[in-house]
Amino acid sequence: MEKDDFDLQNFLPYLLNQAAEESSLAFQKIYKDRYGILRTEWRVLFHLGIYGRMTASEIGDRSKMHKTKISRAVQKLTERRFLTRARDDGDRRVEHLELTTAGEAAYRDLRGIAEVYNGRLDDGFSDEEMRVLRVALRKLAGMG
Amino acid sequence: MEKDDFDLQNFLPYLLNQAAEESSLAFQKIYKDRYGILRTEWRVLFHLGIYGRMTASEIGDRSKMHKTKISRAVQKLTERRFLTRARDDGDRRVEHLELTTAGEAAYRDLRGIAEVYNGRLDDGFSDEEMRVLRVALRKLAGMG
DNA sequence: AGTTAACAGTTGATTATGTAACTAACAATA
DNA sequence: TATTGTTAGTTACATAATCAACTGTTAACT
Question: Which of A42, A80, B86, B102 has an alpha carbon within 20 to 30 A of B144's alpha carbon?
Fold first, then answer.
């Protein structure tokens, strides 16, 4: 049937992208419907929820998101009163970001959902398969 | 160091996305620099290169890309003379897409690069690890 | 001190994407 | 042959991502 036997499904960048999109679809719907936030905003929220007080640059280093994305996500989350910004005393270029009570609540809510969601994705794989998968993905993501 | 022990690196949608982005970065640079095309266009090009003559809908079914994306990618590729469109005689809604000689050449060039590139990504994993990885990704991508 | 470079973060212009509404063609049924 | 529904593909509008240029601040070097 095929004209050329190159297999897109074995081309890792393509396959990874398909898996990433498919697997994030339902979760995306949840944070969108429930809080009206975007993927970028969700990520910033989670970084602050997990690591506590951080600067935009630190979030950028960890997440590899571009700084303009982060800047705009921070703006949105500030408008929604999910985080507060505080200038650093020593270095006035730097801003420390921290979740508000409302931001914390949203984070914990979504975190709970993420855990359940993640558990569902894990189903269907053995422990060993999951281990191999995680190690491989971390390596591919450059966090090996 | 952490405030909350939820691990983003174990949250599959996030981890998959990181791996997908990181792993496609260098390849993306190549098709962008060399042919000035986008990811969507690259995908359409590959579908036609692999399967030969196809319609936009068929590409959509296989790739799960949205039809508007495909429509615009086809326009761009047509402008660049990488493909030709031909109305179906029996059903005049349908358009058959086919690569031109130039499109074929671009496909073969990129296909070769993709193969080498994919091989490099595979390095560092054992055969068994790669097998598990591919099976898992296919399942997650809904192509189980 | 004065100049230059580097850095944190923002903004603006361009480009890409998603959603919904649309056109044109075909199919099914009455 | 009307009517209604469905399909292939496009377009318009609103939203989001990207890139480069920008402000304000600190660091480094002379």
Answer: A42
Nucleotides of C under 7 A from a protein CB: 7-12, 16-20, 24-27
B94-118 CB burial, b ≥16 within 10 A, e <16: ebbbebeeebbebbeebbeebeebb
Contacts of B114 in chain A (CB under 8 A): 6, 11
Alpha-carbon torsion, ordered B38, B40, B44, B47, to 10 deg: 110
Note the pLDDT tens digit of each residue in A78-137: 999 999 999 999 999 999 999 999 999 999 999 999 999 999 999 989 999 999 999 999
Place of tokens 């970084």: A47
Closest residue of B to A110, CA-based?
B6
Q: List the one residue out of A97, A61, A57, A54 whose CA is nearest residue A76.
A: A97
Q: Name the nearest CA neighbour of B17 among A92, A64, A68, A114.
A: A64
Q: Above 70 in pLDDT, residue B2?
A: no
Q: CA torsion A77→A79→A83→A88, rounded to 10°?
A: 110
Please tell me which residue lies nearest to nucleotide C23, judged from CA to C1': B93
- Out of A20, A133, A142, name the one closest to residue B136 (CB): A133
Residues of A in contact with B21 (CB under 8 A): 64
CATH number belonging to the domain at A8-140, selected among 3.90.1330.10, 3.40.605.10, 1.10.10.10, 1.10.730.10: 1.10.10.10
Beta bridge partners of A85: A97
Would you call A2 helix, strand, or coil by DSSP?
coil
**Which pLDDT band, with edges at 50, 70 and 90, does B91 fall under?**
very high
Q: Where are the domains of chain B?
A: 8-140
